[in-house]
Each structure stands twice: as structure tokens, then as C-alpha cells.
Amino acid sequence: MKVSNETKVGALTIIAITLIILGFNFLRGKTFFKSGNFIYAKYTDTKGLIVSNPVFVNGFQVGTVFDIENKSADLSQIIVSIKLNEPYKIPNNSVATIQDNPLGTNSISIVLGDAKNYLKSEDTIKTAPAASLLGDLMNTLSPLGEQTKKTITSLEQVLSNLNTVLNEQNKANFETILKNLSATTENLNKSMESIEGMLQKQNGSIAQTADNLSSFTKNLNDNNKKINNIISNLDTASKQVKDADLYKTIQGLQSAVAELTTTLHKLNTGDGTAAKLLNDPAIYQQLQGTIKSINTLVDDVKVHPKRYVNISVFGKKDKSTPLVKPIADTVN
User: Fold this and answer.
1) 239 is in which domain, residue-wise?
2) Both 53 and 67 in a single domain?
3) Which end of the chain is least crowded, N or C, by CB within 10 Å?
4) Are 61 and 131 in a shared domain?
5) Nearest to 82 by CA among 118, 117, 55
6) Tell me: the pLDDT tens digits for 293-319?
């Protein structure tokens, strides 16, 4: 049987189209012959996920999206078929989330669980919605926006209170305070200049004081021997004073003071002659009378000597009245 050229061309065309379709699907990760390890994930929103998107576990690609099917009329349940490259041990409590990447390709990320049982081929993995990058950014910035609003409101209140407090008088006072602060700063600068002048190595007073201290220390060092001699002499003198019998001397002085005190007490309160001379008025009056009589006798002898001494052979005895009191000049 002879095949016409038209039949040959048609057959080759059909084979070429079939190969193209198979190659295109193969490049997309989809084959007509479903073989290998498959798991399924149910989502309500696939976030633009398409066939051949990668599937990662801890950043390592373990498979691709093989197929996406809608199982409900209202599109509320979309099943995604995941083809694993190898029969990996994935715990059955692992969770698959869709990672939305506005700058690249969307993907599925599987967060491994801690169960001891693993998913088998044709099993369904748990899913959870994952926020997009922009959503995460907005969720992060939302509290900051609220905090910023509160901060701006507080700042407005502070500025309002500040405008209320800063009336004309307070503004004038504030200006005065600023002037005082400026003057204080200027005085501090002058003080710092003075301190710097004091700290100068050549002419500063502190440097001169240090030089004086150095000179004084040098003099002490030079006269160290003399100072040691003086201290030694003082030590010797102190030892001599310590060795002297000062205790007996002090006891003698105390005894003398006690005897003197006893004598004075006897003079003030005793019955002896000296005490009576000091304390008895009668004895004083008698002494005064005796002294007066003696003065009278002496004056009478001066006035009438012939009454007591008569050396004349022919003279006569003086019979005038004797004195009864001393002459005034004699008494004085």
C-alpha cells in the first residue's frame, strides 16, 4: 500500500504539534502521565500562584506546583497539586503557605512540623494564609502610624500649652534668662582663660607654686641631715626630762603648798599670837594705845628733858604738867 505525500505531511505535522505541546508542558512541570510523589493543598486564595512555581522547605526547593484545580462553583476551595522531586519525609502536621513576591515568582513554603508520622503520596497537607510582603510592611507600619498620630497630637498639645504659658511677660522673662545664660557663659569663658593662664608652664601661678614646692622639697632634702640632728637633740632632751626625778620634785612642791595652806588657815582661824594680831581687834587697839603712850612719853622727854635728866648742880627741877598726849607732828 502506497502512502501519499499528503498523508505523510499531515502525520508529521500532528507528531510535531504533539511534541511541542508535550515539551511545553514538560517545561512547565506538567506531564500527561501523572507519576511520582504528589501531595495536595487546599486554599481559598492562591495569590496568583501558577503551575511550575517552586515549592521550598527551609529555603530548599523540594518540588513544583503541578496543577491548580477549582472544586467548587463559588471558587471558595482551590486545590493545588504539589509534585515532590523525591519521597521526602515531611511530618503530617507541617503547614504549607503561599509566599507572595511582587518582585518575582510566587512560591509555596512548607514549614515542617514535629510529628513522628510523615505524609504519604496523595495525602493533603495543612495550609495557612500567609501575608504578602506589602501586607507585612503595612502591618508593621500601621502601629507606627498610630503612634505617630498620637505623638503629633501630644506635640500639638505641648505647643498649645507652651503658647499659653509664654505670654508677653513670660517671654520677657525668658529673654532675660537667655541673657543671663549668655553672661554666665561669658564669665565661664573668662574663668577658663584664667585657669589656662594659671596652668601655663612658664608664667602660670600653678606652675610657680609647683616650682616653689619643688624648691622647698629640695631644701628639705639638702637640710635633711640638720633636721635629723635637731630631731635627735629633741629626742635626747625629751629623754633627759623623762629621766629627771620630776615626781619627787612635784611631791615636794605639793607638800610645801599643803604646809603653806595649813599655816594660812591657822593664821585666819587659830588662837596663836600671829592669828590674834591678824584677827583680834582688841589686840590691835591695845597696840595702838601702847604706841600712843610711847609717842607721848618720847614727846614729853623732848619737851621737858629736865624732868627726867637733871645735870645742873644748882638748877631746879622742872615741875610743869607732863603731856597727856603726843604732839600732833609726832603722831603724824
Assistant:
1) 199-243
2) yes
3) N
4) yes
5) 55
6) 888 888 877 777 777 766 555 555 556
